[in-house]
Protein: Coatomer subunit delta
Amino acid sequence: MREKAKELQRQKMELAKKGGKPSFGSSGGFGNSTGYTPTPNVGDVANTTNDVKPPPSYTVSKPTPTSNRAMKLGGKSRDVESFVDQLKSEGENVISSVANNVEQSGHKAPAIKQDIDGVHLRLEEKMVVKMGRDGGVQMFELLGLITLHIGNEKWGRIRVQLENQDMRGVQLQTHPNVDKELFKMKSQIGLKQPTKPFPLNTDVGVLKWRLQGTDEGLVPLLINCWPSEAGDDSCDVNIEYELTHPNLELSDVNIYIPLPIGCNPIVSECDGHYTHEARRNQLIWSLPIIDSTNKTGSLEFSAPKSIPNDFFPLTLNFTSKSSFAKIKITDVLFVDDDSPVKHSVETVLFPDKYEIV
Structure:
């Protein structure tokens, strides 16, 4: 067998002298692009053919940067579709799994619809929360924005009436073209030049606000995760939530709890329902609604072959139709006579990042 290996090596050297060595410098991104050609071990020679094929007569052209980028973007989408198809064939609940994957990367609020004929206002708030596993708030930040969309020029010259019930020191900032004195005196949003209309058929940010702090009272939902070692290389885990703002109604609440690889948790108690996603090594605790009627709840489970650190960081997602800053849009008025204007209001609150570390 050694003689065959030497013969094979000799043939390859002769081929290289004749220009037969394959070149990977012009690779279009497929196959081995490092230029490395593995040499077979002696034990592999028996399964290796001795017929050496001549190099191809064509050359592989490099793709342009634009097509290469497009290929990568499309490839990622195709990978996701292929993965979803595989899940369907295995009988998995694809809708909840894909939704959870999207949510964990950060909840993305839908854009304002572009087929609006009248006046539409969107009040959007997103928060970033970071809490310690032993208690305490490491970071809290709330960012809010009111967006105005006018679909018809006859509604262009208007003012928006607000009501601010906040007592926690929310920092407000109007758009540079908004009349600041009008806002301070009457809590109205209007242009500095009232003879001019607001832009049409576009989303215009008119007011934004910010709230920061480390007070636990700012956090809408406190999470207490308490894993304890059971003495047999397993952990008993108790998780509790507490709604600290009874005026809020949180919808589609999902708490994501990481698990050790290969862990099959045994759930003994659960308010709401849970899902074990073995592929992602996580347990999802889901509650359709958390409000004043169920301000607290708990989940208890045991996890074999685990340690307390395995269950952190926890992440959390939800949506709400209430303003955390207690800012409300109460009316829309014409500039000329203060008569009311028909309008629609959309309010959404969601976490950009919410974790217990």
